[in-house]
Amino acid sequence: MKLEDEMGKHFYTFVILFLLSFSTLAHDRGGMTARFIPAEVKPGDLFELSVEMHRGDYGQFVLNITSHPRLHLVTRERVPPKLVNGRYHQEERLVLQALSSGPLTFSGLQVELIETNGTRTITFPDLKLNILPFAQLDSIESPQPLPIPESNFTSNSKTIVLLILFIIITGLFLYWYRNVNKSTTTETPRTKTSIKIATKDFETLLEGNRDTLSANLRRDLETFLYSPDRSGLTPADLKSRLRKELGE
Questions:
Q1: Domain spanning 28-131 has what CATH number?
Q2: Which of 90, 95, 129, 215 could be bridged to 81 by S-S, CB 3.0 to 4.6 A?
Q3: pLDDT, averaged across the chain
Q4: What are the backbone dihedrals phi and psi of residue 29, each rounded to the nearest 5 degrees, phi first?
Q5: What is the 3-state secondary structure (H, E, C) of 40-75?
Q6: 122 and 32 in contact (C-beta within 8 Å)?
Q7: What pLDDT, on a 0 to 100 scale, did the predictor assign at position 189?
Q8: pLDDT reading at 184 higher than 70
Q9: What is the pTM assigned to this prediction?
Q10: pLDDT score at 7
């Protein structure tokens, strides 16, 4: 009887130790953690889902994540595995945006953990996120008045002022342009070198400037034009004398 009792005690001890070891294995996530930062947000806020690995033995993980209808993925950043102070560290951050208020449960988050003795799947427990509702507006019995629109008089007066300025500027520009053209087109006194006289114009010049030409020049022009004896009179000399008397 004592032998049976002793065997029964050993059997129960073995079962308890087996269950404890199984429970420890079931909760062994290889140094993996997952959390929301922060755990409480408002609709539209950005927050992080951080998945980290800290362990003494070599390991690295690949994150498998599914979409959630109330969360929007903004960006994803991976920090590769590295050895720091004798421990292996790896991290992956997901920036998310909350779309609607209310408590949120994120289920099914898994990683493929690669270790020296093989690969295993780590499943995290459900992650909780509290998305606060929008602040409620104070109850108001009477409706708020509509905003007062900008006065038409103000907008019209601005238009009139701009139009007047445009007319003034245009008038000043035209006045300046006309004066500039007038000054450039005013006939300048003819210089001696600006007069070009052809021989065939002698008669015209004689008739048109008879009162202003000297008596000697009139006589020489008439002799050159109408007398068969032109001794001593050359076109070049007559042109030179005409320039001297008509040039100024």
A1: 2.60.40.680
A2: 90
A3: 80
A4: -110, 20
A5: EECCCCEEEEEEEEEECCCEEEEEECCCCCCEEEEE
A6: yes
A7: 45
A8: no
A9: 0.46
A10: 56
